[in-house]
Specification:
Strand content: 15-25%
Order of helices and strands: HEEEEHEHEHEEEHEHEHHEEEHHH
Number of strands: 14
CATH topology of the largest domain: D-Maltodextrin-Binding Protein, domain 2
Amino acid sequence: MIKKTILTAACATAAVLSLQAHAEDGKVLRMACESTYAPFVFFDTQTRKPVGFEIDLLEYAAKQMGRKLEVTNMGFDAIIPAILTGITDVGASAFTITPERAKRVLFSKPYYMSGLSILVRAEDKDKIKSVKDIENCTICAQIGTSGSMRAAKVPGAKVRNFNTINEAYLELNNKGCRAVIGDRPVTAYFLASRPQAAADYHHLPETLNSEAFGFPVSKNNKALAKELDAAIDKARANGEFTKIYVKWFAEEPPKELLAQ
């Protein structure tokens, strides 16, 4: 009887602690990201804190939900598995909304319209002018991204995947591949933020395809997806979305994005 009482008390205590932990979790919006995707999400070298367009937008959304944003850095290809296993609530780092991903997760409404582009070495700018010119070549990309998926569709291409897009850029500079395929705004920010980059690289003007970015969440968390959409809609309506967009991209969002 004593042992049973002790066991019952222990179980009751565990249940209370579990409820308390769940209650605490409800006050936090857990975000997982790969923090080399400037200007969407990256670490500020001065403060060593995550900053970027997605950080600002999710901080606004979290505030509307009465939560505090908690950011965890991990490999890009680990983010969706982390969502599926409940380790995190929402993913970021410029997730393209694709049919393949939509089979596994729910996406928020689009918050950015993008496209893929090709980066080559400056010495090759007269030799490589379109995606046709990198057929049968080695192409670098970040693992798990739409850039990697598109690279795999280039006829005869050998794709080399890296954990971060910056590693892919570095490998291109070291002549380990002929080109990098990645998100145009990320590559553009990389070039703009490094004075020497313009001399080392050439960014092809061709945009390979149009893409919409969204925040992925678990299909078991439809309530969160609705809350995210409501917060993004409110930000669009009250001008906060435009304010954040201009801060990071130095231009106003396209009208079709505001009408989502």
